Amino acid sequence: MNSQKLYSLKPYLLLLAIPLFIIAFLGGGLYLSAQGVDNAFYQISPAVAIIPALIWALLFASGPFATRLQQVLTGMGNQTLLAMCMIYIFAGAFGVVTQAVGCIDDLIHFIMSLLPAQALLPSLFILSASIGFAMGSSMGVVAAVTPIGIGLANATGVDIPLVLGIVIGGAMFGDNLSMISDTTLAATQTQKAKVRQKFILNAPIALVAASLYLIMLSTFQPATVAVPSLNYHAIKLIPYLAVIIFALAGMNVFLVLGLGTLVAGIIGIIEPSDYTLIQFSQDIYRGFASMNEIMVLSLLLGGLVGLIQSQGGFAPILNSLDKINTEKKHTRTYIALSIALVISLVTAAVANNVISILIIGTIVEKMAKKSGLSPARSATLLSIFSCAAQGLLPHGAQVLLASRLSQVSPLAVISHVGYCYILAGVGVIYILIRSRTKY
Fold first, then answer.
1. What is the pLDDT of residue 105?
2. What is the pLDDT of residues 229-245, one digit of tens each?
3. How much is the pTM?
4. Three-state secondary structure along the chain?
5. Average pLDDT over the chain, rounded to whole?
6. I want to staple 420 with a disulfide (CB 3.0 to 4.6 A). Which of 114, 303, 391, 399 is the partner?
């Protein structure tokens, strides 16, 4: 009887591994911060904080240990996860090389000489959102634009967490609305929807949220530091211009960051300075090494999620959705709100909105079909609320990357991702107003 009870509790015990990791990571940082320790959230590495959670899940998983370990390794080998890790190291190389060559300082001086103070923050969001929409990669946006945001913050006195929140918000705008993002493709494929129809439904919600956010940003008045209008070298703007142009052209994120790094290195070598090809190669590796921690964390988190999924740990959530679907017919509003809530919770659990859509997509498609929600509508709901949740996760890849690049606490970052809060609010209002109609 006890073994049967334990077996029935297994999915819940496995799911506890996720909050255990969050408590170990954030709880440790909060405790050390209360003790007055500097850089409290970096005293305990998140790559180490996740180990107790992984051990917990392995203990409560069933089957031979070799099988459980294989499930962990399969989770680590997820294609989306590996692509994310590749973006980490490309972003690290791009950031270190452009900093070593001096590109970032010249870019900041150029931007500040070009734009009025009140336009800096809205322009940063528009830049991030435009690149995200064209590139279809929120991680690529965070990697490319975060150094710009940090430089602007240092030059104007704006809080760094605020500019990080702006960049992440723009990145999630693009991830949600782009017709080539993994999120859009996962949502439309699982719901059997057409990308164009999803875009037509999605665009008004995303644009209303963006407009409200831009109005809010325009109220900030940075205390700008005077910068001479010619205090920059135009040639050192080329790497960032190249990245922006390549991204807006829809080029693959790896090519965008790789070519940007190459252009920066070439400029550093041909400029009258002591920057050499050997130093260029060393800076590339330094960039790779700077991302070791976040890459190890992502792999271990992917392994943890893979183990939980293989062991049926998400069964309680999926069963709840299935129960809603098989019970009496609910209103479209109820179904739409249920989809929004569950995709947000699953995204929070797995820290990857694409994987969360793939986990619950099949059941959501059945629910939408039964309740009369169009495939494009259910795909839009999955995309909007998974992106809103993803941008607000302290253990999400976007926040962790921005935190790593800036040495700012993830908790400080998520409190400033205003666009994602507004997007979620506009999404709920949209459901309440429009769910009576089919399209």
1. 73
2. 546 778 888 888 888 78
3. 0.80
4. CHHHHHHHHHHHHHHCHHHHHHHHHHHHHHHHHHCCCCCHHHCCCHHHHHHHHHHHHHHHCCCCHHHHHHHHHHHHCCHHHHHHHHHHHHHHHHHHHHHHHCHHHHHHHHHHHHCCHHHHHHHHHHHHHHHHHHHCCHHHHHHHHHHHHHHHHHHHCCCHHHHHHHHHHHHHHHHHHCCCCHHHHHHHHHHCCCHHHHHHHHHHHHHHHHHHHHHHHCCCCCCCCCCCCCCCCHHHHHHHHHHHHHHHCCCCHHHHHHHHHHHHHHHHHHCCCCCCHHHHHHHHHHHHHHCHHHHHHHHHHHHHHHHHHHCCCCHHHHHHHHHHHHCCCCCHHHHHHHHHHHHHHHHHHHCCHHHHHHHHHHHHHHHHHHHCCCHHHHHHHHHHHHHHHHCCCCCCHHHHHHHHHHCCCHHHHHCCCHHHHHHHHHHHHHHHHHCCCCC
5. 85
6. 391
